Amino acid sequence: MKNRVTELLKIEYPILMGGMAWAGTPKLAAAVSNAGGLGMIGSGAMNPEQLTGAIHYIKQITDKPFGVNIMLASPYADELVKVVLKEQVPVVTFGAGNPAKYIPSLKKQGTIVIPVVASDSLAKLLERSGVDAVIAEGMESGGHIGEVTTIVLVNKVARSVTIPVIAAGGIADGRAMAAAFSLGAEGVQIGTRFLASFEAEIHENYKKKILSASIRDTVVTGMKLGHPARVLKTPFARQICELEAQSPLEAEQILVGSLRRAVLDGDLDSGSFMAGQVAGLVEQILPVNQIIQTIFEEFKQTVKKLCVEVLQ
């Protein structure tokens, strides 16, 4: 498939891996890149030295394009951008804010910049700032979310900018990918589906939680703290939601490190198992290359079926 996203990123399929801090390891990112998509290292809570090591490692295990996701809420954000520049990372995505101040230096070096947006107004602002594309991420997604659903957000953003739009949130199969393209997207970003892969370096408890989830088995924590995040329902998640109303500061303190505890330790008592509502559609753990092939084949068949039905 060739379109503006595949041409821009020099990839075979217009499928990007979500950043997914702690879970977005070089091994998983390389698997996505080697399968024809764009793998992303989730820098999350990394410091500059850790990110440098992760970049060096992924360069050893793939010669395909890859990227780094930087959360603007990170206290190391400035330094992580310097690492990306020094290591000449081909693609950078940004989440949780406006990366406008970083764009000139990244573009000067030729780095492709693709921020995540949760509104059409931010998408238009960033287009004027010179970004190459935007990821319109709806509230169905796992991790930190905005307030608008994917179907509404992608539709609006695609009508509001001229640069390529990549859809995210609630996408785990070819039918959802076709739906995103019908709204004007030219690529999709997938997170939760890649967590249920053999290459994902997350605790088995995490993978089991995804496989057993229904589409109603997520909850949003952090809403009252100003940084809402969608996670799988657990007693800990319910505890946080209740605590937010009574003692927001205490809830925020307890949340620190909770994603790491879920990813590395599978801690069901104090871990935040970030996942999108689409976890309810994931039925089995598969190799990354099979996931991508299956998604793309279903995408083609869905588009073909729609075209035939319209022509009839």
Question: Quick gist of this model?
Answer:
This protein has 312 residues and is of the alpha/beta class.
Report the strand count. 11
Low-confidence stretches: none
Helix content: 40-55%
Major sheet = 8 strands, parallel
The tally of helices reads 14
Summarize the helix and strand pattern as letters: HEHEHEHEHEHEEHEHEHHEEHHHH
Which percent range describes the beta-strand content?
A: 5-15%
What does this structure look like?
Strands 1-9-8-6-5-4-3-2 form an eight-stranded parallel β-sheet. It has a three-stranded antiparallel β-sheet with strand order 7-11-10, with helices on one face. The two termini are 25 Å apart. The radius of gyration is 18 Å and the shape is globular. Helices cover 45% and strands 15% of the residues. With 312 residues, it is of the alpha/beta class. It has helices spanning 4-9, 26-34, 48-61, 77-86, 103-109, 120-129, 150-160, 174-182, 192-195, 204-212, 235-246, 248-255, 258-265, 288-311, and strands spanning 15-17, 39-42, 66-71, 91-95, 112-117, 134-137, 143-144, 165-168, 187-190, 218-221, 229-232. It contains 14 helices and eleven strands. The longest helix is centred in the C-terminal third of the chain and has 24 residues, at 288-311. Helix 2 runs parallel beside helix 3 and helix 8 (174-182) crosses helix 14 (288-311). A hairpin with a 7-residue loop joins strand 10 and strand 11.
